[in-house]
Every structure is written in structure tokens, then in C-alpha cells.
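Contributing: when you submit paired examples, paste them exactly as shown. First protein:
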Amino acid sequence: MRFVLSLGDRAMLSMLYSDAIELYTCAIAFCCSDPLYHFNRAHAFYRLHKYVEATEDAEKSIHIDPNFSKVYDLLGLIYCAQGKYHDAIDQGFVKALELDPGDESFTRNIQFAHQKLGDADTAQEDQVIS
């Protein structure tokens, strides 16, 4: 299945998101318990602005591995794309940062969501904390 995953990754790099979804779907059909397959398909759905499907796959990935920090970050991005900045912070970015405090992109995403909410003070505090 790693070969199919690799093909899906190549499709993502080529911005062939529908092709990537098909490949990741094949991988999931053979091994539905790998959180990476659901994460990757969620990312492809996100790129196509299919946020319902992206959220479903992100949540499946979380169900399989609740300690997979990158999927929480992706969930935050999905919520941000829909203007759901509180959900992005609370259900996505903060959880990602708790699991991997060294990843500065999670902190930047929290700051971005706070700025979108017009909460400059909190965004500044987050910047100082990290």
C-alpha cells in the first residue's frame, strides 16, 4: 500500500487532487486503520474545497490516532477556510500545539485565527508565549 500512498503523494505535488483522492481511497480500502491515508485524503479534499469530506476524513484519522498532531492542524485549516475560527483554534490548532509544542507553524496558525477574529491582544500573547 505504500506504493499507492506514494502515487497519491505525487498526485498531490502535481496538484492533481482528484487523482490523489482516488489513490488514497484505494489505500484506505486495503488498510482502513492507517491514519495517514485518511489524513492525506482529507488534505486532498481540503485542497478541492470539499470541507465536509475533508472534516470527515480528518476525524477518522483522529479516531485512529488521537496523538497525530498534523491532523489537528489540518482540521484547524479546514475550519479556517470556512470562517470557523473559534473551532479552528479550539478543536484544531491548540490540540496540535499541545501534542507537538515545538512546531512553530501551529503557533502561527493560532495567531492567524485570532487575527481573523479581531483578537489582536490574544494573538500577541500567543506570539510571546512561544
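Second protein:
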Amino acid sequence: MYYYYLETNALYNIKNISVDTIKNCYTSVLSIIELVSGIKDDSSYRKRKAILNLVFESKITIDFAMPDEIIFNSFDIFTDYEFIEERIDLLLVLVKSLIESESYDYYIKSDQYNHRLGHEYFKNIDNEMSKRFIFSSNLGAKAMRQTISIDSYNNAVIIDNKEFNLNSTKKLGDFFDQFPELNSSMTINALSKMILNFSKIEDFSLEDVYNSYNGLVKTYVSFFSKYCITLIVNGGSPAKNDFVDLTHLIYMKNNLDTIIISDDNLFKKLMGDKSKSISELK
């Protein structure tokens, strides 16, 4: 049986998904935050309020772990440390206030909206989370580029006594197609650095964290790594929201029977049959 992860744009059509299908679907707190943080005027208020109301009325399963918590749990070295999460309860209070509000003006004048941990707080969380994942993404891409010039004198690497020349982006792409685990290792290293900085735990080295990776976010690591090398090989630039959109793959974890539902062409091009459009789900 397949399970379906509905990323943010799929939730705009949740009213068209049957009750039976919803039972095999789930979404995430990341989608909820993106819906809330995008409210900036009366039009976006009315549209997103209606969607959030439908989401909660549908009883769809919501993964309330933040992306950084899932990454934290992807490294066994932190097993004896507790990830303290205090944001979710605050978010739910804000969402309740939003759904029950009579108008946009009423909402933006509410105590919940103007609380120091209210609307602007979650808008900033959305922005900061984006910056953090973009930072880790850039680390991974930088490591890949350095591979060409650092690994050997002739831009070649030797694996199992076989030499691979990496003096062009085409050859680099072919190399990582043959050894995707090396590509993934750069992403894991970037995530290790990101979560070590975020957690502020000083007991471990970057190498310690990296070596404790347990594969929990395998889907994200695999497809994000593929995305980065594709950019490098094709010489393209990432679209404005690509890094943020790819963060949703964290919620697929290492579940091989999970498919992401989205009308974003990024996922279809990157993931093939691991991605379906909203119309295909209906």
C-alpha cells in the first residue's frame, strides 16, 4: 500500500480528495507554517484560512515534527539528548485564532497574532528555516565542486584500483551516477554541520556526527544530492523556492512506499514515479 505526502500546494485541493484516500495521506507542520506565514492581506487571509480549516476538518494525519527535529533524530549520536520543541503548541494556538477570526482586520488585531511568539514569529521561522537549508545546500554543492580540483593532481579519483577522470562536469555527473553514495555523503556532511550548529551541542566533532547518520532522511538525501549534481552538470541556477520545496522530502523519511503529491514540476522531473500530481491522486 502506498502512502501519500501532501506538500503545501496539494493542500489547496484537499476538498477534492475523497475520505477514503485521505486515510492514506499525511502532511506536515512545515505545510501548516507555510500556509500561515503567507498571509499578508485580506485575499491571502481568506484563501489560506479556508484551506487550513479544511485541512483540520479532514482529519488528515499531520507530522508535527519540525524539519530540524527530524534531522536531529537522523544522527544516533544525539540519542541521549532531548530535542526540546516548544513551537508547535504556539502554532496551534495561532491557527485556532486564525480559523475562528471573523476577518483579516480582526485576525491581525488579535492577541495571538501580535504575541511575541505569534504570526511574525512563525513568518520568521519560515524564512530562517529556508536560509538554514539553503546554507546546507550550498555546503553540499561547494563540496561537489571542490571534488574536481582537490581529489587528485589530474582531477581524477581512484576507486577499487580504477581511475575516474573528473576534468569536466559531464564526467563528474557520470561519476556520481555510478557512485551515488559519494554524492549523498556530501549532503549528509552538510546536514551534520547544520544540525551541529543548530543544536549548539559541543560534545561532538563534525566527523562524530557524520558517522552516526542512521538513514532516517534517506529520501531527502538521495534526491537533494541528485538535484545538486544536476545543477552543476547542467550549469543551471536553482529556482527561487527550490531549496525550500525540497525540504518537504524530509517528511518522506526512509519510507519506500511513500509518494509526494504536488503540482510542482520540480518533483516530477527529479523523482519520477515517486511524485504524482494532485489530479493523479484524485
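If you have annotations for the second protein, write them as plain sentences, like these:
The first strand starts at residue 3 and ends at 6.
Residues 148-152 have pLDDT under 50 and may be disordered.
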